[in-house]
Amino acid sequence: MKSIASAIRGLSLVFCAVLLIAGSLFISAAPASADTVKVIMGGKKGLVFEPAVVNVKAGDTIQFEVGQLPPHNVVFDKVPGADAALAASLSHKALEGAKKTFDITIPADAPKGEYSYFCLPHRGAGMVGKVVVQ
Ligand SMILES: [Cu+2]
């Protein structure tokens, strides 16, 4: 009887170990959580996006905040594959005034590469930015 009890104990230990290993595999296979990065439109340096280049991954969100010298907006012009529909869907063409914020989320299925954009009223002044999806 004693050997049966110890065998059951041994089996339950093995069972727990298998559960633990399977559980840890599931955790490591889960996708990385989405992040939010912030870009100031019209920062301390004037008519620029700060930072001008942000590195993100698909699914991440970029929060744009109006700083100095409004109004500002974000119009994507060059995206991977010259996908005009994707560029249009990412753009925030409405002009935003002081202290306003808006979010642009890179779709989870967006291709990797460089997405360049500009602020329509201040493009000529050099207010351009880039999102690099890694
Ligand atoms: Cu602007």
UniProtKB/TrEMBL annotation:
The crystal structure with reduced Cu(1+) has also been determined. Keywords: Copper, Electron transport, Membrane, Metal-binding, Signal, Thylakoid, Transport. SUPFAM superfamilies: Cupredoxins. The keyword Metal-binding applies. Its main location: membrane. It comes from the Bacteria. Coiled coil: none annotated. It is found in: Membrane. Its cofactor is Cu(2+). Cu cation binds at H72, C119, H122, M127. GO terms for cellular component: membrane. InterPro entries: BlueCu_1, BlueCu_1_BS, Copper_blue_Plastocyanin, Cupredoxin, Plastocyanin. Belongs to the plastocyanin family. This is Plastocyanin. It comes from Leptolyngbya boryana NIES-2135.
